[in-house]
Amino acid sequence: MSAEAVGAKTGSRWKLSLDTWAVLVAFLLALLVRTGVFKHVPW
Amino acid sequence: MADVLTVRQVQQVRPALRFLRVIPGVLLLAGVGYAGKLLEQNVGAFAKAHHWTFPNIEYVLWAIVLGLLISNTVGVPEIFRTGVATYEFWLKAGIVLLGSRFLLGDILKLGGVSLVLVAIEIAGSLAFMTFLGRLFKLKPKLTTLLAVGSAVCGVSAIIATKGAIEADDEDSSFSIAAILALGALALFTFPLIGHALHLSDRAYGLWAGLGVDNTAEATAAGALYSDAAGKLAVLVKSTRNAMIGFVVLAYAIYWASKGQAQEVGNKAKFLWQKFPKFVLGFLLISVLATYHFFNKDQVGALANLSRWAFLLTFAGVGLRTNFSEMRKQGLRPFAVGAIGEVVIAGFTLALVYGASKIFGW
Hints:
The complex is a heterodimer.
Chain A: H1 3-12, H2 18-34
Chain B: H1 2-49, H2 59-72, H3 78-84, H4 87-98, H5 104-135, H6 140-165, H7 169-196, H8 201-211, H9 215-225, H10 227-242, H11 244-257, H12 267-274, H13 277-290, H14 296-319, H15 323-327, H16 332-359
């Protein structure tokens, strides 16, 4: 088995979908707002 | 040992490289989106200062039009493409954050109504697109992809179904091109028709969520009408997206029964894999907002973060739409898609009109 194949196989167990990444990032941002790291977000 | 080291190197370098590759495109999305925002502020002020009559064009439209201009004139250079493709990521993050502006009670009330309309829309659209595909003698799997793309949620549904029914790459390219081209047209026609018919924000938001296929275009078509319509369009479109697993499962079972796709083993696992997780994120943020986990200022900050995410999305919608590429895909699938979309748009408008009479919107 090539190194790339091993890497791909090992990595695929932890590979998250785009949806899941989007949810995680959104929740991280929400947490930063909740804890006061981002006090004001301008628009 | 050498193998182990190579594997580690591959694992360490790849995510970093992938991250670096998206940066130019994300900067382009941000630049185009922000230029749209500046144009909204300055063109209106300039016209007013010179006593010109000029319609108030929102940043949504400016960002899309600027993206379309770049994509269809100079084109998007290769270095930006990986980053531009992240517009779907920003869309989904934006939808999750938008959940903070919905109270759970509103979601249950509006979601209940939209769930009934979505079920009718999906059944009607699938039946009509299947009929059209047969009438135009399209390949059966191409017809399935077009039907799912029109009935449920555009490109995501086509990609999910392609894997499940083992359709050709060519068929999925045809279907995606048709759905994207028609989505781009819907962006401009839906708001015009909505204004011509004097639809309320609620009626229009429902219609955009039911009638526009791709989530990005549905969000943009809603936001082009009004903020309230945009919120509702996202809610209704998310309800449609939540149905994707059931529709794809039904088609996977159908094609497996004909011996043209693999049997579905664990159906619950299949449904979970296909379920759009951002819908759960949207609901969870809404639950947190309903139980005052965030104060008023924090909800405002989350809403603004959601707007910034959508700004990148709208720029991406324009940048990834290339009409000459779409023309290469052929006329027949596009014709089937176009006829289907016009009929579905009329059908969903009638549904919304009926619902607005019943519920007095």
